[in-house]
Specification:
This protein is an alpha+beta fold and about 160 residues long. The protein contains two helices and eight strands, in the order H-E-E-E-E-H-E-E-E-E.
């Protein structure tokens, strides 16, 4: 009887794990396909010669953000999720990720940075800095890519 229960539990765990992995892959597949389509769009429209990094940003609107090389300069391209618009900026025309983090550190006591992403809010390229402060509250801080101007901030309780 103990062996029977043992094998039922093992089969249950294996099936649950398999179904979870399958479900995760099924859910992620459209995002992966759209990301690849966005990369083909950027290269096909000659917005970049080579792509070195790409991310997905979903704020007020969703954007694919690609970094790469165009005419021997580092460039960032923001492509709308519908592929109906894009914005381009040289990396040298904006603040760095480190500068964006230092702006946030001046405004709040930060325990750790969770992520820093480029995106677009209100038609402007922005950095979204997600962090946890010393009071264990999760913060979202938005500064413009161009000069680090404050746009908006949210702080949420995590407990």
């Amino acid at each position: 009887m103990k062996k029977w229960i043992f094998w039922v539990v093992i089969i249950f765990v294996v099936l649950t794990t398999g179904l979870s992995v399958y479900g995760y892959q099924t859910i992620r597949e459209p995002l992966k396909d759209n990301y690849e389509q966005a990369e083909r769009y950027v290269l096909g429209q000659s917005l970049l010669h080579t792509v070195s990094n790409g991310t997905y940003y979903h704020g007020t609107d969703a954007y694919y953000v690609f970094e790469g090389i165009m005419d021997e300069e580092e460039v960032i391209v923001w492509v709308s999720e519908e592929f109906d618009s894009h914005q381009i900026a040289k990396v040298s025309d904006g603040i760095s990720e480190g500068e964006a983090i230092s702006i946030v550190q001046k405004q709040d006591e930060i325990k750790r940075i969770q992520s820093v992403k480029l995106g677009i809010e209100r038609g402007l390229p922005v950095y979204e800095i997600i962090y946890v402060n010393n009071e264990n509250r999760k913060g979202y801080y938005y500064v413009t890519f161009e000069d680090g101007t404050f746009m908006k901030r949210y702080v949420l309780r995590t407990d």
